[in-house]
Design brief:
Blueprint (H helix, E strand, L loop, with lengths): L8 H7 L21 H34 L2 H54 L5 H83 L3 H13 L6 E5 L2 E2 L8 H9 L4 E2 L6 E3 L1 H7 L1
Parallel strand pairs: 1-4
Antiparallel strand pairs: 1-2, 3-4
Helix pairs in contact: 2-4, 3-4
Length: about 290
């Protein structure tokens, strides 16, 4: 018995006249590589932060130069104002002390008059005593009032000496006060002239500084102010100059310089703690 051999399906399809299959080629679009937009935005934001920090540093440095032009005048004016206020207070205290001393002198004079009246009365009473005991008692009262008069006179001399000293101190203090006021007026006029020359520029710089600070997050701004406060020259943000930190001039390795140029993170000097920017960025903002 002969075996039946099954023909391939492909052959059957080809032999069947009524069956036809249209094969279409479908082009599959390549799957796009996902873009890390968060990373790109982070890099841009850090670069903007560096720009804002460096620009803020430039403005603050200009304000520092204006203050240097003024020199020690503001401090001198403050010291003179304190001296004037101190002398005025001292004079007021002396005047109060003089009023108190004069009142005490007046009270002692009144006390002397009262003692004299009592002595006169006791002496009159001695003429009418009935026994020696009453006479001795009146005599003791007269002696006591005499001692009171002597004590009051002593106090009056002491008070007058203090009055004389206080009045001399007032004269000296008033003389010093007049000199200080003249010096203060001269220093104020000098400071006013200098401020008038730079007031407009300083106001504009302060306004720009306030606007730039709004673009910097609080954490960075606090760090910037802390570094700036501790730095002698007021520089918190510096550029890399000749492979070294622009603040402390310490050498910066090439790999770290590359990281600074990439603007992927904020980098500080390992030696002085200042914030570093690359020279290209600094030159573009200068």
């Amino acid at each position: 018995m002969a075996k039946s051999v099954a023909k391939p399906a492909k052959k059957i399809i080809e032999d069947t006249p009524t069956a036809s299959i249209a094969v279409e080629t479908v082009e599959v679009a390549p799957i796009p590589t996902p873009v890390d937009h968060g990373k790109e935005e982070t890099e841009i934001s850090i670069e903007r932060k560096l720009v804002a920090l460096f620009t803020l540093q430039q403005n603050d440095s200009k304000i520092d130069r204006i203050k240097i032009v003024r020199g020690e005048l503001p401090l001198e004016v403050e010291d003179l104002e304190d001296d004037v206020a101190g002398l005025e207070t001292r004079i007021d205290n002396y005047i109060t002390e003089i009023n108190v001393l004069e009142k005490q002198v007046s009270d002692k004079h009144q006390s002397i008059k009262e003692s004299q009246v009592l002595i006169k009365r006791y002496e009159e009473q001695q003429n009418n005593v009935r026994n020696n005991r009453e006479y001795d008692a009146l005599t003791k009262e007269i002696e006591f009032q005499s001692l009171e008069i002597q004590l009051s006179e002593k106090r009056i001399r002491e008070f007058n000496a203090q009055l004389t000293m206080s009045k001399e101190e007032i004269e000296n203090a008033q003389h010093d006060l007049s000199d200080r006021r003249n010096d203060l007026e001269a220093k104020r006029n000098e400071l006013t002239d200098i401020v008038a020359e730079t007031e407009l520029e300083e106001r504009e710089l302060n306004h720009k500084s306030e606007q730039q600070q709004k673009m910097i997050e609080d954490r960075l701004l606090v760090a910037y102010k802390r570094i700036r406060k501790n730095a002698r020259n007021g520089l918190a943000v510096v550029s890399v100059e000749r492979d070294a930190c622009g603040g402390c001039f310490s050498y910066i390795p090439p790999q770290r310089q590359l990281d600074i140029k990439l603007h992927k993170k904020i980098i500080v000097c390992e030696f002085c703690g200042r914030i570093l920017v690359d020279k290209e960025l600094a030159d573009s903002l200068s």
